[in-house]
Amino acid sequence: MSFQHRTEADQLRAAVDNGGTAVLSQVLTGTGGVGKTQLAADYARAAWEDGSVDVLVWISASSRQAIMDGYAQAGAEVLAEDPSDPEHAARAFLAWLEPKDGPKRCRWLVVLDDLADPADLRGLWPPNRHGRTLVTTRRREAALSGEGRRLVHVGMFTPAEAVAYLTAVLTAHGRHEPANEIHALAADLGHLPLALSQAGAYLIDTAITCANYRRLFADRIRKLADLLPEPSALPDDQTTTVAATWSLSIERADKRRPVGLARPMLQLTAILDPNGIPDTVLMSEQARAHLAGHRAAGHQESAPVTAEEAVAALRVLHRLSLIDHTPDTPHHAVRVHQLIQRATRDTFASHEQEHLARTAADALFDVWPEFERDTALSQALRANTAALVRHAEDALFQDGAGLAVLFRFGSSLGESGRVAAVIKHYEHMATLAHDRLGAADLYTLGARQELARWRGEAGDAAGAAAAFEQLLTDELRVLGPDHPTTLSARAMLAKWHGESGDAAGAAAAFEQLLADELRVMGPDHLPFMTRASVATYRGRAGDAAGAAAAFEQLLADNLRLLGPDHPSTLVTRNDLGNWRGNAGDVSGAVTAHEQLLADMQPLLGPDHPYVLTTRHDLAYWRGEAGDAVAAAAAFEELLAVQERVLGPDDLKTLTTRNNLAVQRGKAGDAVGAAAAFEQLLADMLPVLGPDHPDTLTTRANLASCRGAAGDPAGAAATYAELLDHTLRVLGPDHPRTLTIRANSGRWLAAVGDDVGAAAVFVQLLADTRRVLGVDHPDTLAVRAAITGLRREVEDANKPGAYDPDLALSLSGLTAQLWKAGRRNEAVTAEQEAVEIRRRLAADNPAAYEPDLASSLAVLATLLAMRGDLSEALRATGEAVELYRCHIARMPSVLPQLRTVLDLQADLLEGLGRAGEAEAVRRWLGESWLPSDSPN
Fold this sequence. Notes:
two-stranded antiparallel sheet, disordered C terminus, Rossmann fold, elongated, mainly alpha
């Protein structure tokens, strides 16, 4: 291999030249192919050329006999010993190396290349403080260090060194490849010097490009040996291909105690993550069963393998540099070069591949905690599962036996906030499961269910609900109504209906599901999640106090049955704190989250998703409590952690950025908040897309900040555009749409467009009453906006407090809207006034029925002018009856009654009911004053 200068060369020269009397021998250790021999040769050549050594001896140390032969040859050449007696010549040479008295002492360097076994040097280490010994070996036993010897680990090329080397090789043969392809190929080969050398020779000999070579290399069907030169065409006098370079080490490892376990252990590591395998996976019951079943011939296959023996097998592989085993980093205890893995996998028969894949899948699933509290362990398990899928996906889907770990992998991805990745995972899994296992298979249905769920989590609530409706139909047909998978689909369907805006419907669906779960699973079933969902959607439907009370009871049951540290208990405490805040107890919400964080962080660690969620909610409630500065500081600290743990594009990270900007705005920095929202929106669009609900919310917040910063016209225009977009994406009834519509109305009012604002609020009031109910806080807020009462409705139990004023305001808006030509909105405004007065009249007929009759008369007139004659006729009929009930007490309403009757007659004629119209007109000619009424 042509020599590439590297930092290890300088380090080696410094170590050898400056070792002093304490360190006389340097032992270069590392796996095969890292360039140990080249480093030793480079040092030896330089030492000889600069005259720093008088005698240079190079010996192949593949066996004790080879070492003795090398010493004997040196004895013959340096001392003229008789070569026919190699034992004597060797001993004479070693004796000559001993220090001698005299004015001049010989400076020598002995290189023992490729030492196969440390035992081969027992009694044969060259001794002399005036000489130097350099050993290269794949071994790293303790016997190689101490007593004046130092182990020097030789690793891979750095990325820069690998690229420089490969570029130089290709350039020397007139080849010029794109730099990005050379970088990528170097990474594909793990920056292993020998692999780079042989791949470069292959590129030159076959005249293929780096890009094409990488495509061939990525093909799992092709063996590594097929992508390297023939043995006769190896470059730089090499004798062994990369594919074969570790075979002898594996054979030697398998002969070490515990005999026969090294090879099967290496095989298991070959389909896992090269960058770190948890020790628990390789010492699991499944892994040890694999080792026991694959011992070398001549051993009792039925004998179980202990955990200690599994560790011993790892240590053997470590000592021969086939793996790196670092027990003090248990989550990444075993690292193995990717080409060692590739060469090992190339030896698998198909049945071995299937067995190893299932063993690894079962081992990963077995050690995966049900509740993830160790972020580093979760990341390692996900990385190993991803590697297993890359190397043995077909085997996992053979009969579905290894798929449980793929569901656990998906759940872990989702719990860590990687929503886009989990969607991609389940899309792929659902397709493969359908193709390999069939549409009715439980794994196929399960993958579809998870895919629909995470699409909803990504923001497509309506799409998730539609997917669950179809899935539920299929599961009812295949599994029946009481199967746990069917019940789970019902829960997801209810949830995503709720997230689509139908909170009341979701609460009702969860209540029915709760009853069915108890019926099917019995009284011992613990339906905590379903109970939490019932409470959540009751709260979202407007009953925040009821939701808080339900979570208090749920928390008591969690504590009693599961204990204080159970994840369900911790999540329930977080939910309870939020609903206390939503019910008006903001300080209680802050206290609850502070206490929860203090309990949770030591238990789960600072980076756990539950901890990050609680920190987020605590910051939010601090802001709601009025301390925007402290809230902004808390969000800023949280953001740094989320960007490190979850990544900058994670949905939770983006949400924190949004809330940080909100609090900055509340703290008085409207300009800074607007700039933050602009940057956030730019970052959100490529990640979430323009239609994601969180993208829409960020656009709304940006518009509000622009308005607060002095540009109300810009805010109003932005809201107008946003409202059109939101209506298209979410529909008119989604909670986010209702919020955006309300803000749109407020900014229209801010720029003086009272008619436009009135139109927005009137239609919004009708929709909030229909969607949320008359007593929902959002409905009350819209009423307050319409009446001009710029204050919070403090007593939700008295929603009629402002109804008379509201009805009067609506009737006034009716005239303005009609005059402005907005007839449909005018009709809606008067319809709302009618409904309010109808409610008031039910409680106090004498006081409010005349006003109700007046509103009905106006509504009838508007409907008639709009051409809706049948609806107008119904309104006149109700108005006439109300007037007749009160005319004796209030004869002043007689003119209004006559006007309504005139309209009624005209409507009847217009509908072709001439006889009835004539009867009304005759009625009009009579006296309407009762005999006891005043004249």
